[in-house]
Amino acid sequence: MNETTTEAPGARATGTDSESDGSLGPRAARTRNTILEACRTLFLDRGYAGTRINNITDACGISRAGFYTYFRDKREVFNIIGETAYHEILQIVNQWESIPRPCTHDDVANWVRAYFAFMDTHGAFILSSAQSAPNDEEFRATSKRMQMRVAWLLGVSLRSHQRNPTDAPEALGLATMAMLDRSWYHCRVQELPVDDEDMIRTVAEMIMSTFGGRESAK
């Protein structure tokens, strides 16, 4: 299976977010991206079901006609954001292929920084989709498959650094993602009084602990 071509839940046949932007002029592309950014926040604040078209248009300062110029409905927006997030998280996970064995604490900390940067863009959507998403079984089943695919790929990458490789890479991947997501949320969203760099380096230390001991000194 080629994970880089697997579609996200409900993905449109017309392609990814970046591909669609390429067919628009600069002003239209900015408006479209403004809508997508507003929806990332609104889906977190209000949930998918609670977000209305007028909430989106008010947040963007556009008319309903302006919204429908770019999107059929809010489901299409949700699909596009999800597709983009899925492909970008695969890129983050694939960075482990270039991390040396043995690796240093700095190597892992740099990867955690990249993961946090990904969450800075997509974290609101990821958290909101876990709590509120289109309510149909096909969507939820597909979403679960994609989540498990990412968890398995991450777990396999981490397992390759373990002195005693785990028999359950999907569990390792899920546990690591849960730690990363919540750490990002507490640090960047809740803005708890924890130094950003301290959080990143602590998470890196915890990831390295799953390798069965530090592979290399800091």
Structural write-up:
- The chain has helices at 17-21, 26-50, 53-60, 64-70, 74-94, 105-131, 137-159, 169-189, 196-209.
- By secondary structure, it is mostly helical.
- The chain has a single domain, classed as Tetracycline Repressor, domain 2.
- It is elongated and about 60 Å long.
- The two termini are 37 Å apart.
Strand content: under 5%
CATH architecture term: Orthogonal Bundle
Taken together, the total number of domains comes to: 1
Helix content: 55-70%
Please write the CATH class name.
Mainly Alpha
> Structural class, judged by helices and strands?
mainly alpha
Helix tally?
9
**Largest sheet descriptor:** none
Q: Topology as H/E string?
A: HHHHHHHHH
Low-confidence segments, given as residue ranges, are: 1-20, 214-218
Shape: elongated
Mean of all residue-level pLDDT scores: 85
Tell me the number of strands: 0
Rg over CA atoms, rounded to whole Å, is: 19 Å
CATH fold assignment: Tetracycline Repressor, domain 2
